[in-house]
Q: What sequence folds into this?
DNA sequence: AAACTATACAAAAACGTTTTCGTAACCAAG
DNA sequence: CTTGGTTACGAAAACGTTTTTGTATAGTTT
C-alpha cells in the first residue's frame, strides 16, 4: 500500500526544495526546463494530487458549496440538487449535500460543521422543525460572519439573504382557477397545518381563486393534515362524507391518496371529480389517471440558487449588502385528472 | 460583519500565547483556573469554533464519509443514504453526498476530488457508464493508497474491497416463484440490457425460477430495455402482441408502465395478469393497484456499509487486508398486484 | 545555600500547500 | 575590477490547529 505522496516526498526524492517542486508543477518559468520535466514526470509516475485540505487552508476557500435540504427522499429536492450541481460543476465548484431530516438539531449540527471551514457558502431549504421553532440563530450568525447563504423554497422572512422561491400562492391560484374554469364548483382543499410555509401559501392561492370567482369559502371542504406520513385514512374518511366535484392538493402524495379515495367511491376522474396536485414528480406522472399538477421547475431553482451564490462568492466586496429574492414561475402540467 | 475568530485573535486580545488559548479551551490542567475561565468566556462571547479544515490537516483525518451514487433522484439510493447517515452521525462522522449522474467522467472527478483530502473513506455505487467502460482505475488506485472503500449495490468483481450487495438473483427468483405458485405460467420478463449488473442478476433469478418449475424458457417473453428513460411505448407495444399471465419487472418503473399497458388491454390485475416489480419505492406503494414488489432494505444496506467503513477507518492496522462481502436479504412485499 | 520540583505559561514544530523574498552563480557592461 | 542583470533555485512565511518541548518563577528539600 503506497502512501499518499506529497510535495515533500517528491522534493526529497529528487533532492530539490519543496518550493521548486511546487513551482515546477505549476509550470512556473522560473524553473529550468530540465527540472520542470523531471518533476512532472516523477509526479505523474507517482500519481501526485495536491491535498485539497491544505489548499483550502492556504487559500481560505474550499470551492465547495454546501446544500442542506430537509429530506433527501423527495423528488423536488432531488431536482433542485441537479440544477445546483450543473451550475456548480460548470464553475469549478464541488457540491456537498447534507440532509437535516427536518430536524432542528441536525440542521444546526450540519450547518455549524460545514460553516467552520468545509464550505464557502450555503444553499439551504429550512427544516420543518426549524420553521416551527423560528430559531434561525445558526443561519443568521453564519451570514454575519461573511458566509453567503441562499435560501430556497422553505424560506423565512427573518433571515436577510438571497432567496429563491416559488410563487406558491400564484401557482395554487392558477391551479384552482383551472379547476373552476373547467366546471368544478365545490373544490376540496387538502393542505398542511399552517406553520408549514408552503402549505400556507398554497392555501392562500386556493382562497384567492375562489374569491376571484365570487364563491364563498366552505371551511368544511378544507382539510389540514398534520401527520403527512400517515394520512391515508384521514383523507379517505374526510372525502367520504363530503359533496365535491374538484380537489386541489398541496402536494403529490395528498393528490394521489385523494385519487384513490375518489375511485373507491366509484366516481369518475375527471368527469365527476377533477384533481390537481402540486409538485411534478414521479407519482403524478405515473398515477392512474395521470395527475394534472403544478410544476415548480426545481432544476431551474437549483440553477438560480447556485448562480446567485457563486456570484456572491466571487464578488466578495464587503460592505455592499444587497439581497435578492427571485421568484420562479410555476407551470400547470395538464394531464388526465382534469378536463379540457 | 464580524470576521471568523481564530485562536490567534483570542491570544492577541488576551495577551497570551496561542498554545495557552488552545490548552485552556481543551481544559488542560496545565493552565491556571484563572486563565482557563477567562479564555473560555472570551471564546464563548465571540462564538469561537475551531476551523475544521485546519483540524483535518493537522489530524490527517476529516471525520467525513463520502458517498457517491449514480443518481440522486432514486428512492432506493435515498434510503441507503438515510441508513448511512444514521450510523455515521452516531459515530461522529459527517456524510457528504455526490452524484455521478451515471457518468464516468463525473464519477472520476468526484472521486479524485474527495479522495485528495476531503474524506476519510468512500461508500460508492458504481455509475452505469463506469460499469460499461469497466475502467475502475480511480477506485483501485484510491484503495491502494490506503483509503477504505465500500461498494454497494452496483459493484464490480475486479475491485477488491468491502461490498454490500443485495441477493438480486435470489430476490428475483423468489418473486417469480411466487408468480408461479399463484398460478401464472407464461411470465413476461421486463429487464435491462445485460451489462447492467443488477438487471442481469435479476434475469438469472427469473430463469432459475422457471427451471425450478421445469418450464422451458420462452425468449419471446423477455424484453431487454436499453433506454430506461423512454420506454413507455416499447413496453406497451411489446405487451400488445404477447400472450401472458404474469409479469416480472426488474424495477419499479417497468412494473408501473406494465401495469398501465395491461389495464389498457382491459385485462384484470391480478386475475388475468399478476405483476411483481423490484424496489419498494413510492411508485409501487401508490400505484393502482398497489404493486407486489421485492424490497431491498435500502436503509439496512446503508447502515451496514457505514458500519463496515467506519470499522475499517478506526482499525487501520495496515497489512491486514481482509475484505468482506455482505449479502442483504430481500423481502417480497405482498400487495394487490398478485393473488393470494 | 544549593539543588530540586511544581506551576504556568511560551515557543516551535507539524500537517501540505503557495508565494514572496532572498541569493548564489554566472555573464556582460562599464 | 566593480557593478548590474539574469537565471535557477532555496528559505521562510502563511493558513489554524494541536502537541511536544522549553523555561522562568516560585516554593520546597536537604
A:
Amino acid at each position: 500500500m503506497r502512501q499518499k505522496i506529497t510535495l515533500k516526498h517528491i522534493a526529497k526524492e529528487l533532492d530539490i526544495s519543496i518550493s521548486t517542486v511546487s513551482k515546477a508543477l505549476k509550470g512556473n518559468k522560473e524553473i529550468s526546463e530540465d527540472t520542470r520535466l523531471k518533476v512532472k514526470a516523477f509526479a505523474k509516475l507517482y500519481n501526485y494530487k495536491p491535498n485539497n485540505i491544505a489548499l483550502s487552508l492556504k487559500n481560505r476557500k474550499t470551492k465547495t458549496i454546501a446544500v442542506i435540504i430537509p429530506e433527501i427522499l423527495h423528488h423536488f429536492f432531488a431536482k433542485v440538487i441537479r440544477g445546483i450541481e450543473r451550475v456548480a460543476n460548470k464553475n469549478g465548484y464541488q457540491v456537498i449535500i447534507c440532509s437535516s431530516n427536518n430536524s432542528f438539531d441536525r440542521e444546526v449540527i450540519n450547518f455549524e460543521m460545514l460553516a467552520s471551514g468545509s464550505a464557502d457558502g450555503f444553499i439551504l431549504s429550512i427544516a420543518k422543525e426549524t420553521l416551527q421553532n423560528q430559531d434561525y440563530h445558526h443561519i443568521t450568525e453564519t451570514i454575519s460572519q461573511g458566509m453567503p447563504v441562499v435560501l430556497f423554497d422553505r424560506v423565512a422572512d427573518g433571515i436577510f439573504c438571497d432567496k429563491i422561491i416559488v410563487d406558491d400562492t400564484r401557482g395554487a391560484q392558477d391551479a384552482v382557477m383551472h379547476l373552476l374554469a373547467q366546471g368544478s364548483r365545490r373544490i376540496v382543499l387538502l393542505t398542511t397545518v399552517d406553520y408549514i410555509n408552503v402549505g400556507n401559501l398554497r392555501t392562500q392561492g386556493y382562497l384567492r381563486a375562489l374569491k376571484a370567482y365570487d364563491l364563498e369559502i366552505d371551511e368544511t371542504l378544507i382539510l389540514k393534515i398534520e401527520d403527512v406520513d400517515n394520512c391515508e385514512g384521514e383523507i379517505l374518511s374526510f372525502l367520504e362524507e363530503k359533496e365535491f366535484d374538484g380537489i386541489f392538493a398541496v402536494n403529490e402524495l395528498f393528490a394521489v391518496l385523494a385519487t384513490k379515495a375518489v375511485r373507491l367511491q366509484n366516481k369518475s376522474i375527471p368527469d365527476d371529480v377533477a384533481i390537481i396536485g402540486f409538485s411534478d414528480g414521479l407519482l403524478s406522472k405515473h398515477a392512474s389517471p395521470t395527475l394534472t399538477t403544478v410544476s415548480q421547475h426545481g432544476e431551474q431553482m437549483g440553477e438560480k440558487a447556485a448562480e446567485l451564490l457563486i456570484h456572491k462568492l466571487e464578488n466578495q466586496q464587503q460592505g455592499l449588502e444587497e439581497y435578492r429574492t427571485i421568484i420562479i414561475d410555476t407551470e400547470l402540467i395538464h394531464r388526465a385528472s382534469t378536463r379540457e
